[in-house]
Amino acid sequence: MLQSRDGWPVKTRELHNHHFDSTAWNDFAFRDDDIVIATYAKAGTTWTQQIVGQLVFGGAEEVPVHDISPWLDLRAPPTAVKHALLAAQTHRRFIKTHLPVDALVYSPRAKYLYIGRDGRDVAVSLYNHHASATEGWFRMLNDTPGRVGPPMPPPAASAGEAFDTWLEQDGAPFWPFFSSVRSWWQIRHLPNLLFVHYADMKRDLEGQMRRIADFLGIALSPAQWTAAVEHCSFDYMRAHGEQTVPAGGAMWRGGAASFLHSGQAGRWRELLTPQQAAAYERRAVLELGAECAQWLAQGTGADAR
């Protein structure tokens, strides 16, 4: 990871495909209290946006997270639209990215949350995401002007087939997985970055929310905490999908329930063969190293730094 003289990561490339336009960060005007939520994809991004929204707004009902917390590096809507939306906000801003660090402008002024999840769960969740997408989703990705590279293809016939392609071609047909995780792991020591794991949030939601709140310097009253934790349950998020899920769930058959799906950790055990699971484990250690691969597979229950 290339670093500047003062030790901060430096952007070294642009990433473009059917989803990405990484130039969206190049002239973004950061504020000192900005929050950036970073993941690969299907690792708990929307859940973490909901958590941060509840912390920022003190456990308020029906915070319109998907309207106010954009995926900045997504190609649609245009970058200028998202920049204007964020520039007009007076509350503490929280922004989503799926970029690896070397394609992102990393600011010392912001606080970063990196959310990890077992890559096998990521892959099977991506398959559900892909298989339940509407024609509108495909048109947005493939027909929006400025796409670089091939279009997003139709989904595979099964989760197992999709997993094989995703593993053998490192993230296809989405984007590379292992190099993205590795880029964030390499900077986990930075003081403005907190690692959080999906499995840890499943095991102890309130505990992980308190870790995040402490890191962000946010204090809530007991009543606000009770409301915030309730509003971050999957049941609440499904019932309020028009506020919590991208596009209100409209781009997936079944709406918000389809987008959030089961929310389980370890669901890959029901869908992948032992051979597929073992192939992933070997690749993860080779690509990430034993320590990172272990953390990604199970979380820690504590700060990964």
Write the layout of secondary structure elements.
Elements: E1 35-38, H1 45-56, H2 65-68, H3 79-88, E2 94-97, E3 111-116, H4 119-131, H5 135-143, H6 159-168, H7 178-185, E4 193-197, H8 198-203, H9 205-216, H10 222-231, H11 234-239, H12 241-244, H13 255-260, H14 268-271, H15 274-288, H16 290-298
Parallel strand pairs: 1-2, 1-3, 3-4
Helix pairs in contact: 1-10, 4-6, 6-15, 15-16
Structural Rg: 18 Å
- Order of neighbouring strands in the sheet with most strands: 2-1-3-4
Percent range for helical residues?
40-55%
Q: Tell me the β content.
A: 5-15%
End-to-end distance, in Å?
A: 17 Å
Please count the helical segments. 16
Query: How many runs of DSSP E, i.e. beta strands?
Result: 4
Main attributes of the structure:
305 residues; alpha/beta; P-loop_NTPase; 16 helices; four-stranded parallel β-sheet
Quick recap of the structure?
With 305 residues, the chain is of the alpha/beta class. Helix content is 45%, strand content 6%.
Verbal overview:
The chain is of the alpha/beta class and 305 residues long. It has a domain at 22-117 and 135-150 and 177-262: P-loop containing nucleotide triphosphate hydrolases (Rossmann fold). The chain is built from 16 helices and four strands. The chain has a four-stranded parallel beta sheet with strand order 2-1-3-4, sandwiched between helices. It is globular.
